[in-house]
Amino acid sequence: MENMAHFYSRLPVTPTEHQTRLLEEIAYLEARLRDIGITGDCAYEKSLARSYDALLRERREQLADSGIQLSHPEE
Asked: Are 37 and 45 in contact (CB under 8 A)?
Protein backbone atom coordinates (compact mmCIF):
# COMPACT_ATOMS: atom_id res chain seq x y z
CA MET A 1 0.00 0.00 0.00
CA GLU A 2 2.85 2.36 0.84
CA ASN A 3 4.40 1.79 -2.60
CA MET A 4 1.12 2.69 -4.29
CA ALA A 5 0.77 5.84 -2.21
CA HIS A 6 4.32 6.81 -3.12
CA PHE A 7 3.64 6.16 -6.83
CA TYR A 8 0.62 8.47 -6.84
CA SER A 9 2.07 11.16 -4.60
CA ARG A 10 5.12 11.94 -6.73
CA LEU A 11 5.36 13.48 -10.16
CA PRO A 12 5.67 11.09 -13.11
CA VAL A 13 9.27 10.69 -14.26
CA THR A 14 8.57 9.69 -17.85
CA PRO A 15 5.78 10.31 -20.35
CA THR A 16 5.03 6.59 -20.30
CA GLU A 17 4.60 6.64 -16.52
CA HIS A 18 2.25 9.61 -16.87
CA GLN A 19 0.19 7.74 -19.47
CA THR A 20 0.13 4.62 -17.27
CA ARG A 21 -1.14 6.66 -14.35
CA LEU A 22 -3.87 8.21 -16.51
CA LEU A 23 -4.93 4.78 -17.82
CA GLU A 24 -5.15 3.47 -14.25
CA GLU A 25 -7.22 6.45 -13.14
CA ILE A 26 -9.55 6.02 -16.12
CA ALA A 27 -9.99 2.31 -15.35
CA TYR A 28 -10.75 3.09 -11.69
CA LEU A 29 -13.29 5.80 -12.54
CA GLU A 30 -15.01 3.59 -15.13
CA ALA A 31 -15.25 0.75 -12.58
CA ARG A 32 -16.70 3.07 -9.94
CA LEU A 33 -19.27 4.39 -12.44
CA ARG A 34 -20.27 0.83 -13.31
CA ASP A 35 -20.62 0.01 -9.59
CA ILE A 36 -22.88 2.94 -8.73
CA GLY A 37 -24.52 3.29 -12.13
CA ILE A 38 -24.61 6.37 -14.28
CA THR A 39 -27.61 7.83 -12.44
CA GLY A 40 -27.06 6.40 -8.96
CA ASP A 41 -29.75 5.40 -6.47
CA CYS A 42 -29.59 8.40 -4.16
CA ALA A 43 -28.44 12.03 -4.20
CA TYR A 44 -24.98 11.08 -2.92
CA GLU A 45 -24.45 8.50 -5.70
CA LYS A 46 -25.83 10.87 -8.33
CA SER A 47 -23.36 13.51 -7.20
CA LEU A 48 -20.50 10.99 -7.25
CA ALA A 49 -21.50 9.82 -10.73
CA ARG A 50 -21.43 13.41 -12.04
CA SER A 51 -18.03 13.98 -10.45
CA TYR A 52 -16.61 10.72 -11.80
CA ASP A 53 -18.00 11.48 -15.25
CA ALA A 54 -16.34 14.91 -15.26
CA LEU A 55 -13.05 13.42 -14.07
CA LEU A 56 -13.27 10.73 -16.75
CA ARG A 57 -13.67 13.32 -19.49
CA GLU A 58 -10.74 15.30 -18.08
CA ARG A 59 -8.45 12.25 -17.83
CA ARG A 60 -9.37 11.07 -21.34
CA GLU A 61 -8.58 14.52 -22.69
CA GLN A 62 -5.23 14.53 -20.88
CA LEU A 63 -4.46 11.08 -22.28
CA ALA A 64 -5.36 12.20 -25.81
CA ASP A 65 -3.09 15.23 -25.38
CA SER A 66 -0.28 12.84 -24.44
CA GLY A 67 -0.70 10.98 -27.73
CA ILE A 68 -2.99 8.04 -26.86
CA GLN A 69 -6.54 7.79 -28.16
CA LEU A 70 -9.08 5.54 -26.42
CA SER A 71 -12.17 4.21 -28.09
CA HIS A 72 -15.40 4.97 -26.23
CA PRO A 73 -18.00 2.34 -27.14
CA GLU A 74 -20.56 3.82 -24.74
CA GLU A 75 -20.36 7.28 -26.30
From this structure: yes
